[in-house]
């Protein structure tokens, strides 16, 4: 069976809906779609979206208009989890796990550490707690996909201006080291199986109109457990899709 899975930080589902979200769905027809930063409760989702031919699971933050994730599935998941057993992370609607026959999919909106030292600390705690959580989870299901807005560029090739940002959250040594540690734990960066080129970005600053000049960052990823590496047939960045300061990314898996 083939799965076409997309991930997209929509920067507000209601705003994205006004900017062509339905057109995106109709064009790409994802089998599974993971959204981050939905900024809405379930009852605030536009009715047109809720009427799409998907099972839609939504995990909103306690704080209104903030964070949150949603997973749209044309293939009904066997189980859905809306917790990683830590209240300080769960209350921000960070992780939504959908379990399918062949794999488990972690749709994650990773914290942003730019606002303050406290938020950077929170981000790093989230990062390493996730590995600890996965160490236990992987015992029952070794086939795992982790996708979403990681809020960190891994290598210099993953952002347009690495030197200018080496002291900025999103490209700090400790943040980048976590990605090294995560990959060493047993995951692969799916895009890099197919594309080793620079200037492949997924986020651009709105204020400076950076997208017009492609001055961006690659901070959205599909990580797939090493044991499924041969199942990945394609990995792409869809820079032709607008409606957010991020663009969608996708993988195709064949089981």
Mind explaining what this structure looks like?
This protein has 255 residues and is of the alpha+beta class. It has a single domain, classed as Endonuclease/exonuclease/phosphatase (Deoxyribonuclease I, Chain A), CATH 3.60.10.10. Helix content is 24%, strand content 27%. The chain has seven helices and 14 strands. The strands form three sheets. A six-stranded mixed sheet has the order 3-4-2-1-14-13, with no helix packed on it. Strand 7 (104-109), helix 5 and strand 8 form a beta-alpha-beta unit. Helix 5 (117-137) packs parallel to helix 6 (173-186). The longest helix is centred in the middle third of the chain and has 21 residues, at 117-137. It is globular and about 45 Å long. The mean pLDDT is 98.
Q: Which stretches of 5+ consecutive residues score pLDDT under 50?
A: none
Sheet with most strands: strand arrangement: 3-4-2-1-14-13
Number of strands: 14
What is the CATH architecture annotation?
A: 4-Layer Sandwich
Overall structural class, as computed from helix and strand content, comes to alpha+beta
How confident is the prediction overall: mean pLDDT?
A: 98
**End-to-end C-alpha gap:** 5 Å
User: How many strands, which pairing sense, and closed or not: the largest β-sheet?
Assistant: 6 strands, mixed
Helix/strand order, N-terminal first:
EHHEHEEEHEEHEHEEHEEEE
Number of helices: 7
- Shape call: globular
* Integer tally of domains: 1
Radius of gyration of CA atoms, rounded to a whole number = 17 Å
CATH superfamily: Endonuclease/exonuclease/phosphatase
CATH class: Alpha Beta
CATH fold-level assignment: Deoxyribonuclease I, Chain A
Beta fraction of the residues? Answer: 25-35%
Helix fraction by DSSP (H/I, runs of at least 4): 10-25%
């Amino acid at each position: 069976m083939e799965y076409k899975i997309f991930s997209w930080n929509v920067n507000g589902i209601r705003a994205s809906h006004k900017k062509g979200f339905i057109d995106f769905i109709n064009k790409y027809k994802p089998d599974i779609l993971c959204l981050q930063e939905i900024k809405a409760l379930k009852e605030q989702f536009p009715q047109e979206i809720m009427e799409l031919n998907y099972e839609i699971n939504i995990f909103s933050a306690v704080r209104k208009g903030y964070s949150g994730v949603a997973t749209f599935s044309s293939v009904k998941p066997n189980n859905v989890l809306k917790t990683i057993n830590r209240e300080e992370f769960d209350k921000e609607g960070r992780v939504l796990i959908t379990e399918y026959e062949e794999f488990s999919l972690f749709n994650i909106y990773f914290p942003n550490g730019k606002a303050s030292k406290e938020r950077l600390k929170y981000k790093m705690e989230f990062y390493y707690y996730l590995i600890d959580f996965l160490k236990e989870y992987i015992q029952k299901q070794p086939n795992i996909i982790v996708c979403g807005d990681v809020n960190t560029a891994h290598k210099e090739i993953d952002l347009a201006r690495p030197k200018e940002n080496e002291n900025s959250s999103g490209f700090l040594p400790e943040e980048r080291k976590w990605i090294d540690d995560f990959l060493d734990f047993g995951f692969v960066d799916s895009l890099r199986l197919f594309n080793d080129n620079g200037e492949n970005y997924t986020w651009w600053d709105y204020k400076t109109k950076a997208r017009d000049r492609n001055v961006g960052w690659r901070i959205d990823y599909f990580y797939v457990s090493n044991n499924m590496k041969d199942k990945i047939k394609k990995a792409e960045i869809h820079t032709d899709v607008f409606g957010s300061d991020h663009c969608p990314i996708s993988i195709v898996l064949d089981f």
